[in-house]
Amino acid sequence: MAHNGTVLFGRLPSRCRASSPGHGFRFKNKLHSLDATVIDLCLSMFPWAKFRRAKGALKVHAGMDHEGRLPTFAAVTEGRTSDIEVARTLRLPKGSIVAADRAYLDFERINSLILQGVFLATRLKKGIGYRVVERRGANRRQGVTSDQTIEFTSARGRKRCPRRLRRIGCRDLETGKRCVLLTTNFQLSAKTIADICRSRWQVELFFKWIKRNLKVKSFVGASRNAVMTQLWIAMCMYLLVSHLKFASRLGWSRAEILRLLQLNPFERRPLGDLLRNKANDPPACQPQTEMKFAWS
């Protein structure tokens, strides 16, 4: 049964998208990233969230729209739920590009996305058998070491994904670190595919932001409903702050806007006026000064 918070969460992205910026790439395709994060829970306090023998956990799955860095898809599941199990329920617009980690690399899922007209960009798992069908020139000055067309060679791979895919070898020009990418897109340059995979970190930054700023690592209630409510409120709050950031066009960060709201909980005036009042810039945290004011 869906939690009530999912209803509000489902309505907010369309409001934010009206004023959000683009994803920063030259192509016009919609760009999404998929990832998940584990919320650790004390099993003695949250016995319903059993994850391992002596550990409790929930998992938050999110799909990030890179236009405005907005989470447009989210699901909260048991900690043991696999990432690919949730990804199979997600439907994306035809022509969009989805960047995902290796946990989402699944033969059936790749084939399903191709049939939907959705492009995948991910890292290739080690040990997956393939053969090279075609080789293209690689621009090593851009960090591209290889650009190939491949086919899976395992019986399972040939049966579940009888497609030709694109394998791209990359090397970071600064660190020298190498990686191998897999994509279903043959139109974009190899460098652009590499940049798309690198931009997947935006969804991880979203998880870090709500954990740091919205306190989803400690909960006010111990019941399943209390925890789920707090998680959905946090994700809705991220979208509301994003809407204020885009609509105000004042260059404030999400953290600054959230800090301003926290410092003015009882102000009865339009939020636009509050944001435009430069006298209310979020001050740096100065515990000693605050203590001095409290005792004076």
Using brief descriptors, characterize the structure shown.
single chain; 296 residues; alpha+beta; 10-stranded mixed sheet
Written account of the structure:
- It contains ten helices and ten strands.
- The protein has 296 residues and is α+β, with helices and mostly antiparallel strands.
- It folds into two domains: 1-101 and 202-272, no CATH class; 119-199, no CATH class.
- It is globular.
- Residues 285-296 have low confidence and may be disordered.
- Note the overall shape: globular
Please tally the helical runs, counting DSSP H or I stretches of 4 or more residues: 10
Strand residue percentage: 15-25%
Q: Low-confidence spans: pLDDT under 50, at least 5 residues? A: 285-296
The average pLDDT value, as a whole number, equals: 88
User: Number of domains in the coordinates?
Assistant: 2
Number of strands: 10
**Main pleated-sheet profile:** 10 strands, mixed
Q: Please trace the helix and strand order, writing H or E for each element.
A: HEEEEHEHEEEHEEHHHHHH
Q: Supply the helix-strand structural class.
A: alpha+beta
Radius of gyration: 22 Å
Gap between N and C termini, in Å? Answer: 53 Å
Helicity, as a percent range: 25-40%
Write the layout of secondary structure elements.
Layout lengths: L4 H13 L13 E11 L8 E3 L2 E11 L4 E9 L4 H5 L9 E4 L6 H10 L2 E5 L6 E7 L7 E9 L2 H6 L3 E8 L6 E6 L6 H10 L1 H13 L10 H25 L5 H10 L7 H6 L10 H9 L1
Parallel strand pairs: 1-5, 5-6
Antiparallel strand pairs: 1-3, 2-3, 3-4, 6-10, 7-8, 8-9, 9-10
Helix pairs in contact: 1-7
